[in-house]
């Protein structure tokens, strides 16, 4: 399969995706400004067997399409400390995996570990 066919496959699966917001704060202090970008994501929990390393019970996994991030003008350097707003609740991005969902070196989607 090519990266384009994989992207199309992910796009067809969007019925299982929901709208979330990726939020990045700038500056410091209580009233610091932030940038919100609505994107689609697949939101799931972790299986008990996946609770290893830094993954804790209650953490969630978000699959976010890279093309959606680009279209929403989100920098593709998602990192710990950025936020994801899921169902109205702001969650901390604990890890952003940009390797697992690559095909032939092309980033298809991020896999985010979120907590909160």
3D architecture notes:
This protein has two helices and eight strands. The model has no long low-confidence stretch (mean pLDDT 90). The protein has a six-stranded antiparallel beta barrel. A two-stranded antiparallel ribbon has the order 6-7. It has one domain (3-115). The chain is globular, with a radius of gyration of 14 Å. Helices cover 14% and strands 43% of the residues. The longest helix has 10 residues, at 3-12. It starts with a helix and ends with a strand. The chain is mainly beta and 116 residues long.
Task: Write the SSE topology.
Layout: H1 3-12, E1 18-25, E2 34-45, E3 60-65, H2 66-71, E4 83-86, E5 89-97, E6 102-103, E7 106-107, E8 109-115
Antiparallel strand pairs: 1-2, 1-4, 2-3, 3-8, 4-5, 5-8, 6-7
Task: Give me a quick take on this structure.
With about 120 residues, the protein is mostly beta strands. The protein is built from 2 helices and 8 strands.
Major beta sheet, strand line-up: 1-2-3-8-5-4
- Say how many strands there are: 8
The helix/strand class is mainly beta
Q: What is the overall pLDDT average?
A: 90
**Assembly type of the shown chains?**
single chain
Order of helices and strands: HEEEHEEEEE
What amount of the residues lies in strands? 35-45%
The parts where pLDDT drops under 50 for at least 5 residues are none
What value does the Rg take, in angstroms?
14 Å
Q: Please describe the biggest sheet, giving its number of strands, its sense, and whether it closes into a barrel.
A: 6 strands, antiparallel, barrel
